[in-house]
Amino acid sequence: MINHQHTAPTAAQMIPGAALRKTAMPMRPGAALRKAAMPMRPGSPMVRAPMVRAPMVRAPMVRAPMARVLLAAAVLAACGDPAVDRAPAAGLSIGELLGGADTLHARAIEPREFTFPRDHGPHPEFRTEWWYFTGNLTADDGTMLGYQLTFFRSALTDSASFVSAGGGDGSAWRARHAYMAHFAVTDGSRGQFHAAELFSRDAAGLAGALSNGSGSGVVSAVVRQPRLRNGISDASAGDVSGLHVWLHNWSAISLSYETLPLRLRAVDGNIAIDLVLEAGKPVVLQGDRGLSRKGAEPGNASYYYSLTRMPTFGSVRTRAGTWTVTGASWLDREWSTSVLSPGVTGWDWLSLQLSDFTELMMYRLRRDDRTVDPFSAATFVAADGSTLGFTADEFVMTPVTEWRSGDGVSYPIGWRIEVPSLDLALDIMTPVPNQELDLAVRYWEGMVRATGTRDGRPVSGRGYLEMTGYAATPGQAR
Amino acid sequence: MIPILLRAGARYHLRHRWQLVLALLGVALGVAVVVAVDVATTSARRAFVMSTEAVSGRSSHEILGGPDGIADSVYVRLRRTFPASIALAPIIDRYVSLPSHDGRVLRLLGVDPFAEAPFRDFLGTRDSRLDVERPAVEAPLDIGVLITTRSLVFARATAADMNLSVGDSVQVAFAASTHIAVVGAIFEPRDDASRLAVADIVFADIATAQELTMRPAAAGEAGGGTIDRIEVRALTDHADSAIAAFRTALPVGLRLIESEARAGATARLTRAFDTNLTALALVALVFGMFLIYNSVSFSVVQRRPLFGLLRAQGVTRREIFAQIIVEAGALGVIATIIGIAVGSALGSVLVHLVSRTINDLYFAVTVGAVRLETITFAKAAVLGVGATVAAAMPPAFEALRAPPRAALARAVLERRTSRSAPRLAAGGIAAALAAALLLSIPSRSITLAFAGLFVLILAGALVTPATTILLMRLLRPFAARFGAVGRMATGGVTASLSRTAPAIAALAVALAVGIAVTLMIVSFRSGVVRWLDQSLQADIYVAAPGVGADRTGVTLDSRLAPTLRGVPGIAGVSTYREVSLLLDQADPVRNPEPNLVRGAQPDLVRMLAFDPFERHRAAFEVLDVPAGGAWRAFDNGAVLISEPLAYRRAIGAGDVISLPTDRGSALFTVAGVYRDYASEHGVIFMPRATYEAWWRDRAITSLAVFVRDDVSTDEVIAGIRELPAARGVIIRPNRGLREATLQVFDRTFLITGVLRLLALIVAFVGVTGALMALQLERARDVGVLRTLGLTPLQVWSLITSQTALMGLSAVILAVPLGIAMSWAMVHVINRRSFGWSFDLILVGAPFVQALAVGIAAAVLAGLYPALRMARVRPAQVMRGE
């Protein structure tokens, strides 16, 4: 909890105003931000500074906004107007925050050619990007464990402005990007959940992403840093082989020149993971050949691919002990500059690894008029790796059971999903209702189980469910 | 308390208004000087402490690196090794000046906004003492802008003061280079305390701070940038054990110290300075006490007939005693209130002198506001009222003791005073012995030294009656030549001893303090001049411009020294690298220095890595020379330490001193102790080679250039100025540096001079008042004399010669007292306060000055009563009977 409690205030400081302005408008920034700001728990002020309940979007592109919204929220919190905190947060203007015309960053407008391993690395010409690892694991004694380790990159300014401001010529601390990371572990057998976050800049070796073949500015920023002698942590210390993504002592580092196997390490207090993710099923390009549209406007889209099933082994430490585990992980990779359309208030996203060696990813974007946005989508990955895409009218996600957090935010933690054309019907439930990440940005993300039928045969599975935008609903928070 | 007594008292004082005013003035001035000094020193200290607290935030510990700071990579490695529960914040903390804004000096605090939250709130999180500017007014605090551009964050008041708004450009100068930065954000501190604390701090992202203060050569050097320190805070329930574990894991050369240790060591730098100012202020208050004693006893004496009458009518002793004390108390209260008012005003003048001296000698501080602390009021009240009541005690007891009938007779009192003179003198001699004893106790206590000084003053006061009687007796034959008037003048002084003695004592002490302080300053200054003449051996000195006393970060372009040697006309060059070291605390495990005084707190000392040109060695007056010579030891790697440091650590040639190096704590042999007045906290001269063996740092802070005899200094200076690496540096010829140093010296003692002047004014006012009262009281005697046939001229000369005789007595008393006090100041107080020694030089000027002031005060005091009484019509006075 330490981390969770004490780095929270940092969120308020992670405010790329420039980026924000570019992202958010056209609207009065003040007004929109104020609306976005959600009340925070009273708590000890020192320990817990500005917590903003900004609704998040998580769909494909949705996670990108997360960093963005978080930053926006932080600005708000920084304004420190108590009245703002007390005001009920109106329907989040996530769309506004994530939309807008940003001419300084590249945008996802049409399908592109993906090249690996280069595209596993960063795309600094886009404003936002993330590496989103989740996984379900089983210990020797049958303990069910889940983990989430996410690295968000967020550009603080565009490359041209950065260079014209002299960035890159002086101090090694100069940075064009900020990183935020979330780490969570769920003990499904004991009903325990722990989450933490870190923030840092992409400079001096504190945080960053590298991959062989990625000849980007991000790389040059890291190369500039002094090499770590006697470094305990070797990421970034020089030869980039495979993929390196890290923030302080949380990292995802390739064990060889190939991207996979990849070693994931994170620790917060006595909660830790040390996992190796091995190559499994091939890359899945989401949406239209990897272009995932989130709105009708051209450019309101992201590039999105997934690694849906990576055999995983390693160890997990929780308060209850240390386990040797095996299981399967899922990586979502997404980068974008603007994504959401006006009116989108949040999303429900689900990934499932089913017992018949298939996977399912689906998300629905919720609009402020309580309807489902037509850009909601799903992807089915067959056992052989081939994919089928579904549009909003081709699948149904129905909330069944709700869980209410301590301060009154309700999340639908049980779902019924149906994909008629696959003859697939599943009930989604979680062994741990409270998997709310009460961090600078507040959302629910956690391990789930699925049971149901496909083609009339019983099927089961495990996966991860993410729900954002609930804490921001008027009247619900506090 | 009987109302009629109070009314009688009030009536009495109203009738003797001038007397009341003078008494009030005496106490008020005494209190005012104490308040002024207190206001000045506490404001300066408070400004420093508040800005230090604002700067160190909530860190519990900090990691200090070597003189060249801590490499970025070290921080990154620590951050990537230790979990987030060990909060770390990289800090750059430097003083910069803004040439674009009148050269205003600000403390530049470079921070990583992402690491800030556990430590400080200035960059805009809620719950902090500070609130970020509303977007409606100014740009919100935009961390992105801070990190991506070269921008600064100002507090609203600071920005307003400099007429800055978001987007404006400012020039920022550090060492020899100047950069442009932009106002990136402005924040509004939430409350007055925060506002004061950050008034002279400008925040920036660590990247910006690094770019603005980067050493010229550092950019091209391998190894990248550096930070000044790392703040540490354990965010776990078991912080102590977490910190302990963290400490053991730190790389060699990094020291983890408690945050308060460094701030405390810096704050302690001015302690001796503050104590000395306070002591001087107390001297002024002591004069005030003399005046009170004088005027209260005067009022008692004058009312003896009244008190006698009252006693005869049944008023008890206790009631009369209470009456006198209440009167004194009221006097004290009124005087204290006036004193506080005057003192606060005076304090705002003094604070500039004090803060300038602190800036010259100790550390950079800007006193944003003069604040009256409650403790100042309390001190003033206790001193003012307490001193008044205490001074009123003896006369009150006097009134108490007298039997009703005797009380009526004034002569009884005078007889008793005369009779008690030998007893008082004996007490005085005892006090003098006690003072000598106190001063010779082999202690290091400054308080004890000042106690000795005050007892010495007391001794002077106690011997005054006897000395006066003796003196008058000696003078009588001489005075008799002037006839009856002459005899009466000498007789008159002893006849009213109860009133003349305190006045003479007050004047004598004031003059003695004047003599002592002047002698001390003159002696010290001549010591400094001699020292400067010896130590400023080189012809030209080259240094980067710096702010404040710590020059660790202010270094020369590393290319300067090599290229300098190519300038024609140069015989040789010495290089200095000046760094500030926080010496280890006494700790048998971590600091094996055997001589270190137990319990010693960490000291901030200056160390210079010195590579001397051969001729430069003559610049050192080595006081403690080891066998084989100090320089031979120095050449073998030993260090020279300055006299104050040797005194403070009780070490000498051949001993060892423990220093924190980049390779851990190490013991260095002391090659010798040399005379130095540059720093009261100590200076260490280390051979450059030794320094480079123990520290990574290779920078140079300043250079001393020796010019060939056949070349003019100006020519060489011109040659140096042409060097590209010399851009922005300060080049001073020997004479310039000498003058600048003496200027600082004189500035330092300006405040001493001001205080001495104030003390003298208090004494002058008091003595004048006392003498005037005395003479006016004798109006009836004069009337009698006039009736007996004395001409107005004779009366006039009688009175003025009487006061002149008193002045003379004071001067004669002041001379030995002044010499004794100056001896104590030079050899005990200065030694203990600052650790340096110099010879007491007896020059004539202060004595002549004392004679002139003493006689002038006395004569001036006699003039008015003399004029008035000379004009008195005898009949009128007699009728008043």
Description:
The complex is a heterodimer of chains A (478) and B (881). The longest helix of chain A is centred in the first third of the chain and has 17 residues, at 63-79. Chain A has 478 residues and is mainly β. Chain A is globular, with a radius of gyration of 21 Å. In chain A, helix 3 (29-36) packs across helix 4 (63-79). In chain A, the strands form two sheets. In chain A, strands 1, 2, 3, 4, 5, 6, 7, 8, 9, 10, 11, 12 and 13 form a 13-stranded antiparallel sheet that branches. Chain A has a single domain (2-468), classed as AttH-like domain (AttH-like fold), CATH 2.40.370.10. Chain A has helices spanning 2-13, 17-24, 29-36, 63-79, 82-86, 94-98, 159-164, 217-223, and strands spanning 128-139, 144-155, 177-187, 192-201, 207-211, 243-247, 250-254, 262-268, 271-277, 283-285, 291-293, 301-318, 321-336, 344-354, 359-367, 377-381, 387-391, 396-404, 410-419, 424-429, 436-438, 442-454, 457-468. With 881 residues, chain B is an alpha+beta fold. Among the domains of chain B are: 1-59 and 260-408, no CATH class; 67-252, no CATH class; 545-728, no CATH class. Helix content of chain B is 58%, strand content 15%. In chain B, strands 1, 3, 4, 5, 6, 7, 8, 9, 11 and 12 form a ten-stranded mixed sheet that branches. In chain B, strands 13, 14, 15, 16, 17, 18, 19, 20, 21 and 22 form a ten-stranded mixed sheet that branches. In chain B, strand 7 (169-174) and strand 8 (177-189) form a beta hairpin. In chain B, helix 18 (484-495) packs across helix 19 (497-535) and helix 19 (497-535) runs antiparallel to helix 28. The radius of gyration of chain B is 33 Å and the shape is elongated. Mean pLDDT of chain B is 82; it is low at 125-140 and 216-222. The interface between A and B is large, with 71 and 58 residues.
